[in-house]
Amino acid sequence: MSASHTSPTANPQSPTYTGYLTGYVLAAVLSVIPFGAVMLGGLSTHAVMVIIGLTALIQAAVQLKYFLHIDFKHSPKENLFALAFAVVLVVLMIGGSLWIVSDLNARMMPAMGANMEMPQEL
Amino acid sequence: MGRLNWDALPFYSWVAFTGALVTVGGGLLVVALILYKGWTRKLWTDWLTTVDHKKIGIMYIVLAMVMLLRGFIDALMMRAQQAIAMGNEGYLPPEHFDQIFSSHGTIMIFFMAMPFLTGLINYVMPLQIGARDVAFPFLNAVSFFMTAAGAVLMLLSLVIGVFSTAGWTGYPPYSGAQYSPGVGVDYWIWSVMISGIGTTLSGVNFVTTIMTQRAPGMRLMQMPMFVWTALCSSILMVFAFPALTVVTMMLALDRTFGFHFFTNAAGGNQMQYANLFWMWGHPEVYILILPAFGVFSEVVSVFSSKRLFGYVSMVWATMAIAVLSFTVWLHHFFTMGSSANVNAAFGIATMIIAIPTGVKVFDWLFTMYRGRIRITSPMLWTMGFMVTFGIGGMTGVLLAIPAADYVMHNTTFLVAHFHNMLVPGALFGFFAGYMYWFPKAFGFQLSEVWGKRAFWFWFTGFYCAFMPLYALGFMGMSRRMEHYDVATWQPYLIFACFGAVLVLLGIICLGIQLWVSVRDRVALADTTGDPWDGRTLEWATSSPPPEYNFAHIPDVSDLDAFYEMKQTARTAPAPYEDIHLPASSVYAPLMGVAAAIFGFAVIWWIWWLAALSLAALVALTIARNVTGEPHVTIHAAEVAKIEGART
């Protein structure tokens, strides 16, 4: 990684309107799907959560490609490195939160739904 | 207007009323001074509308100093209350005492430490990498005015309405609308959120600057240590602050619009608040401490007249701390009830983070070893830090053991521990940086005598104020007690109050130091640009540096770039060229004003004003973006004249 005075986001292919439009349409579709899954109902809670999670992941990829113009061929090493770091942190934060909160949930709310009182003894 | 009426004025206690009078009086005094001296135009054109990283840096530090004073008065009031309130009510009503500890924490973290470090990075980092400005100069000004808008809301809560009583962490359910119905928590939310957005933007700006604006030849592993710590701290800002923005936004939705993110009754989960808050909160500790580590590294190397020992290990330790800081957040809520496995994992991660920190301490010690040490005031702060921080670190490793944490959590032991980390680990570093880089910024040195006096009062005051709190924690005293009835605690608390008075003397010395140095500025003038025999690029230019920093962008081939330049005589410089700089802009201060009004309107539910100020904010952003990037040009002849005047 050497110092350079060119912008790190400068890509060989310049972004085009078609690119942005494709990204916009894809992002809109990927937002409407989970929204519809929640609003229309009919699916199990578990299925809805899977749909929301998956469409969110795909949308993140869409935004990276069409709006931030990051791909594995042309992007400078710094950008990919930053992206890898972001992935590590997202895994830490989301994975850690899921672990912590589900653990707390299992311990603190044994009768979820029936009785919302927390157990008094610890 | 919304829920704002005449009852919002602070007539509920004479102490609060005095506080409001001092705030308003101080503000009026400053305005009167500016009008009397006829500084209005100069203030507007030279300072408020500037996009020069150096001036923005100075404004950040002025803001930090003002807020330090406010936050310290809070601290002194708390210590006085606890020294008195044995078996009686003391002089502060509980409602007011709770506001004071909440505002003390909020101010010291968000409006003292953050602006101080952002100011230092702003001033020094572009100079150290041989750049003419940060990557996005206008964005830099916006960041500053967002921080200032938050600080204005914070000060306004003294005069109009009340501040939060929920502590600086604002945990629900207490901070929810049901238990805290007033405006207090809303003041906390919006001042923190608006300034937090500014910090996120600063982080983006600094990372981009360091990655793209370095002088030709400066490889990453040739960056001065302060730049490395600024880089890691900025990366933490970028990744951690969104968590704070999100969590305060969720709390705002809960409180203002009846959402239930954190209210258990309607399927929310208050524990998720603690989880998200500390996901920001722990990296924040390192955002505060890392730049101070950078200052210590610069200072210890210059005043030991040696190259920094173990530069490579220092860089890796900094990066390790930056990554590990995201793996320990649960240790702030060990006692919330996680299972042993979860607590153990985060406890071990917490202990691991002490290792890279220990590496750094030894690197500083070995830099001093066999060095030609000059005991100047920046060096005193550094050595005071090393001793004190070591003690704080050990109590931290103790608290990292979940079983021990169950005993100590929420006691004054914890209060002593984190002050023991942040006072030396952040504040001493900022003072060292302030005294070290002051001659660079203003062209004259600060009085060494008063600087040393300030240090000794702060240093001894710190020990007197916080060592008793460690003992009190073991004796079972909870934090944040408005009064108590255990007679054995009182002597310790009186002694702690004495410590706070010593710190007050330290702050007075800092004030006198500034006064005396400005008075004697001719005698203390730095004509060389290099008063300390420095080693990094910021000392290569004049003091204060010209608007464009460097007439020629330096060519770097060594870690201590300026030291190397001084050793090898350089050939005559090439002829000067025209220099293009970004022009100052009125948009940033206007955006700050709009943001402050927006925050105020939302806090008081004045919805028409909120809509109006938000529209103004959007309009200003769009207007600024369509005007492009205006530039000014400094012609070669003028550069030659400025540079000629230097020698």
From TrEMBL, chain A:
Compartment(s) of residence: Cell membrane
Domain of life (superkingdom): Bacteria
Pfam families assigned to the protein according to its UniProt record, in alphabetical order: COX4_pro
Keyword Transmembrane helix appears in the UniProt entry: yes
Gene Ontology molecular functions: cytochrome bo3 ubiquinol oxidase activity; proton transmembrane transporter activity
Transmembrane segments: 20-40, 47-68, 80-101
InterPro entries: Cyt_c_oxidase_su4_prok (IPR005171), Cyt_o_ubiqinol_oxidase_su4 (IPR014210), Cytochrome_c_oxidase_bac_sub4 (IPR050968)
Membrane-topology annotation of the record: Multi-pass membrane protein
Keywords: Cell membrane, Electron transport, Membrane, Oxidoreductase, Transmembrane, Transmembrane helix, Transport
Annotated GO CC locations: cytochrome o ubiquinol oxidase complex; plasma membrane
GO BP: any one term: electron transport coupled proton transport
Keyword Plastid annotated: no
Function noted in UniProt: Cytochrome bo(3) ubiquinol terminal oxidase is the component of the aerobic respiratory chain of E.coli that predominates when cells are grown at high aeration. Has proton pump activity across the membrane in addition to electron transfer, pumping 2 protons/electron.
Similarity annotation: Belongs to the cytochrome c oxidase bacterial subunit 4 family.
Quaternary structure and partners: Heterooctamer of two A chains, two B chains, two C chains and two D chains.
Protein's recorded name: Cytochrome bo(3) ubiquinol oxidase subunit 4
Gene: cyoD
From TrEMBL, chain B:
Organism from which the protein derives: Aquimixticola soesokkakensis
Residue intervals passing through the bilayer: 12-36, 57-80, 100-125, 137-167, 187-207, 228-253, 285-304, 311-332, 344-366, 378-401, 421-442, 454-472, 492-516, 586-607
The protein's name: Cytochrome bo(3) ubiquinol oxidase subunit 1
Domain called Cytochrome oxidase subunit I profile: residue spans: 38-557
Family stated for the protein in its record: Belongs to the heme-copper respiratory oxidase family.
GO annotation, biological process: aerobic respiration; electron transport coupled proton transport; respiratory electron transport chain
Gene designation per UniProt: cyoB
Protein EC: 1.10.3.10
Lineage, uppermost ranks: Bacteria, Pseudomonadati, Pseudomonadota, Alphaproteobacteria, Rhodobacterales
Keywords: Copper, Electron transport, Heme, Iron, Membrane, Metal-binding, Oxidoreductase, Respiratory chain, Transmembrane, Transmembrane helix, Transport
Source domain of life: Bacteria
One MF term in the entry's GO annotations: cytochrome-c oxidase activity
Alphabetized Pfam families for the sequence: COX1 (PF00115)
InterPro entries, sorted: Cyt_c_oxase-like_su1_dom, Cyt_c_oxase-like_su1_sf, Cyt_C_Oxase_1
GO cellular component assignments: plasma membrane
